[in-house]
């Protein structure tokens, strides 16, 4: 253990089992770029403050450039004995530049170092999530634009309720996703805080300048409390929560696509490129892409639960438990980025089947509310109007037609206030068109929504 970076006080070597159990370099090597960036900023700050000689800082930065190249070309051999990405890089640096490399860790601990690296990493990934969401919103808005006149039965309780424009339906998902993107932007404010300078837990005696290193790293804020800085991972928990909620929205969308693709609905034709077949049933085209998005949502929730549980019982300050923060984030990241890409591809290639939607409208009596509202305009109290419309539904159901299939005599027998013009009111397109109020499914409202989403996309 004498050759370990922390080996001074040890006499015996680490047990092989302990070495394997505690290593993290097999996965935290993913943080190499952030680790090197952070170390360069730290070295320059130390030199600027006269803590280490300028030449040493320069040697450190040149040496780190070389380490980075060695990592990227696959030349550098990661060593389990060196535990993690931080000690692997530092020890390679010292091999290359000697003495000066040993000055890099002045006024710093792996505790603020790892918190910094992870924050930089999470911030980078979150920028990618935002791009993935914007790309999907853009696909949704393109499909919505093409389907402003396509009408389908909107549901409550998954039973036909009222007719809506397909554009309005798709824009509901765009609206959720825009909130997800904004939530990530907000989360980034709390991710992009530099913990560098907190050192092990108590701060440091060196005359450091945390703001200088933070600003070199593009982080607008620095830690307020060194103990908090090294011991909390709330930024990662919050990030994975943002991913979880995004996945919830993608999963809802996936679920609807799966249902719509069932031939009993037939609302949508799946693209071959995002579907799979069956090894036994020749006719099958399965929505596996959407099913996997729905299924993988559980993994991301699992990562969120893992992170919440990792932090829940930790006394101040750094505890090795915190090493368990990275893998759940990596997994959530891979999953949400993959799911966003798949959904954008899938949705952009869906072929919506307007005739199947019209047939479904006919079966669902989704204009029954309009019939009641019509009677209200003729002075019938709403409760009575509701009842009369319900009787018309029962009659139409027994005859196997829609409300508009009933003759005026049949309608008048139910409510004498009904006149010829009721058929206009029952028309599905009119049901939609008459919903002019803000945020509703009417064409004016849909046009306003489309404009707003375009504006939102332009700002991105
Ligand atoms: N690999 C460690 C982690 O991910 C780095 C920090 C180790 N700090 C320590 N005091 N052992 O948390």
TrEMBL record:
Reactions catalysed: 2-(N(omega)-L-arginino)succinate = fumarate + L-arginine
Highest taxon of the lineage: Bacteria
Pathway membership, UniProt: Amino-acid biosynthesis; L-arginine biosynthesis; L-arginine from L-ornithine and carbamoyl phosphate: step 3/3
Pfam family of the protein (one): Lyase_1
Domain Argininosuccinate lyase C-terminal: 365-433
Domain Fumarate lyase N-terminal residue range list: 8-302
Record's subcellular location: Cytoplasm
The keyword Amino-acid biosynthesis belongs to this UniProt entry's keyword annotation: yes
Enzymatic class: lyase
InterPro entries per record: Arg_succ_lyase_C, Argininosuccinate_lyase, Fumarase/histidase_N, Fumarate_lyase_CS, Fumarate_lyase_fam, Fumarate_lyase_N, L-Aspartase-like
Keywords of this entry: Amino-acid biosynthesis, Arginine biosynthesis, Cytoplasm, Lyase
Enzyme Commission designation: 4.3.2.1
A GO term, aspect molecular function: argininosuccinate lyase activity
HAMAP family referenced in this protein's UniProt entry, alphabetically: Arg_succ_lyase
NCBIfam families according to UniProt: argH (TIGR00838)
Family: Belongs to the lyase 1 family. Argininosuccinate lyase subfamily.
Name of the protein this chain belongs to: Argininosuccinate lyase
Gene assigned in the entry: argH
């Amino acid at each position: 253990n004498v050759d370990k970076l922390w080996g001074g006080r040890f006499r015996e070597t680490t047990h092989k089992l302990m070495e394997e159990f505690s290593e993290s370099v097999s996965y935290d090597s993913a943080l190499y770029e952030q680790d090197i960036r952070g170390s360069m900023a730290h070295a320059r700050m130390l030199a600027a403050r006269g803590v280490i000689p300028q030449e040493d800082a320069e040697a450190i930065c040149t040496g780190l450039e070389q380490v980075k190249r060695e990592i990227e070309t696959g030349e550098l051999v990661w060593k389990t004995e060196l535990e993690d990405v931080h000690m692997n890089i530092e020890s390679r640096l010292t091999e290359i530049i000697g003495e000066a490399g040993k000055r890099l860790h002045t006024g710093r601990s792996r505790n603020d170092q790892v918190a910094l690296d992870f924050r930089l990493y999470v911030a980078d990934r979150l920028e990618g999530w935002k791009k993935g969401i914007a790309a999907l919103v853009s696909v949704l808005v393109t499909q919505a634009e093409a389907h402003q006149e396509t009408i389908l039965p909107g549901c409550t309780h998954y039973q036909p309720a009222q007719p809506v424009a397909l554009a309005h339906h798709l824009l509901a998902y765009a609206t959720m996703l825009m909130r997800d993107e904004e939530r990530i932007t907000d989360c980034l404010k709390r991710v992009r805080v530099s913990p560098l300078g907190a050192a092990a837990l108590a701060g440091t005696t060196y005359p450091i300048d945390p703001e200088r290193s933070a600003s070199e790293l593009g982080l607008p804020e620095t830690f307020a409390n060194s103990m908090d800085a090294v011991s909390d991972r709330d930024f990662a928990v919050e990030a994975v929560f943002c991913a979880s909620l995004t996945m919830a929205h993608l999963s809802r969308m996936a679920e609807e696509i799966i249902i719509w693709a069932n031939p009993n609905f037939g609302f949508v034709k799946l693209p071959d490129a995002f579907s799979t077949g069956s090894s036994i049933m020749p006719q099958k085209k399965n929505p596996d892409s959407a099913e996997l998005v729905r299924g993988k949502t559980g993994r991301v929730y699992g990562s969120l639960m893992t992170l919440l549980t990792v932090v829940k019982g930790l006394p101040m300050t750094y505890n090795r438990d915190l090493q368990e923060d990275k893998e759940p984030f990596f997994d959530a990241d891979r999953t949400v980025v993959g799911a966003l890409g798949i959904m954008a591809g899938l949705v952009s290639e869906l072929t919506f089947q307007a005739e199947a939607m019209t047939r479904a409208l006919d079966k669902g009596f989704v204009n029954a509310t309009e019939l009641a509202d019509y009677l209200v305009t003729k002075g019938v109290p709403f409760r009575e109007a509701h009842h009369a419309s319900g009787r018309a539904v029962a009659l139409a159901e027994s005859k196997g037609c829609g409300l508009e299939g009933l003759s005026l005599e049949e309608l008048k027998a139910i409510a004498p206030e009904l006149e010829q013009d009721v058929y206009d009111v029952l028309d599905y397109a009119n049901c939609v068109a008459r919903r002019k109020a803000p945020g509703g499914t009417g064409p004016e409202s849909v046009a306003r929504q489309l404009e707003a989403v375009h504006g939102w996309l332009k700002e991105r």
